[in-house]
Design brief:
mainly alpha
């Protein structure tokens, strides 16, 4: 065990103020919402929780013939959403990188649009696209595309802005066009990071896509909603089990691949 002690620092006045604000905020929120921790340990609630958990731990394996095709549909949604969102992010990221586009007005407006899009959560995107294109996987793919854009574009343009400016300056001085500068000076430096960002977004999308079905945006989430509504917790347990297995496998493969890329 490391016995080295961290240097002691005195609490600053503003730190104490923020802690007090946080405590007061929690107390006021509990009072307004009535969310008392005692409800969690209420005997009736605890009995319900125990009963549901026991049923989920006895999954209905026969339901796998219906759940697995929907899980595959969910993965397809995640793949397509990640691909479409990443392609748009790639182009958009280059347009808002200030070492590529020097016009601050253009980059400022595009960044404002990006920040607005990034504030929209995936479930709200799913609800919006369900309203636009109707119930089904198309809504889920569109929601995941926009969601992926919000994740990848920020990581990507920040990577572009940290690259070595030397090759860009050399090619620009020699009269190379903007396309040639991007092709020969920018892409070789950032493609590894871009692929890593895309894989990271795919990991998140696999999890997000399982929930999108809950609001009608396709995938296995639809079955999750149906089984919960009719209290068929054995089937819900089976769905959660296959989701966990698939997410763990994808997370493992993706993280190993990203580690290999960054070496």
């Amino acid at each position: 065990m490391n016995k080295e002690k961290l240097p002691k620092q005195k609490l600053k006045t503003w730190t104490i103020v923020w802690i007090l604000v946080l405590i007061v905020g929690c107390v006021v929120s509990i009072g307004d919402t009535g969310a008392h921790i005692s409800e969690l340990f209420d005997p009736n609630n605890f009995d319900n929780f125990s009963e549901i958990l026991v049923q989920m731990f006895h999954p209905d394996w026969s339901y796998a013939t219906l759940a697995i095709p929907k899980l595959i549909e969910t993965l397809k949604m995640a793949i397509l959403g990640t691909f479409i969102g990443s392609v748009i992010s790639f182009i958009y990221g280059l347009l808002i990188a200030r070492n590529i586009v020097k016009n601050k007005a253009v980059t400022g407006i595009l960044r404002l649009i990006m920040n607005v899009i990034r504030t929209i959560p995936d479930l709200l995107l799913g609800a919006i696209f369900v309203a636009i294109v109707g119930i089904g996987p198309i809504a889920g793919i569109m929601a995941l595309s926009v969601f992926t854009f919000g994740i990848v574009v920020k990581l990507f343009y920040e990577s572009v802005e940290t690259i070595d400016p030397g090759p860009i300056e050399a090619l620009t001085a020699s009269g190379a066009s903007k396309i040639q500068v991007i092709h020969y000076a920018v892409l070789p430096q950032i493609m590894t990071y871009f692929i890593s960002d895309v894989l990271y977004a795919f990991e998140i999308n696999v999890r997000a896509s399982t929930v999108l079905g809950y609001i009608g945006a396709g995938g296995i989430g639809l079955y999750l909603q149906q089984t919960l509504q009719v209290f068929e917790y054995e089937k819900t347990g089976l769905i959660i089990f296959v989701i966990i297995i698939v997410v763990l496998i994808i997370d493992y493969i993706s993280s190993k691949f990203r580690e290999a890329l960054m070496k």
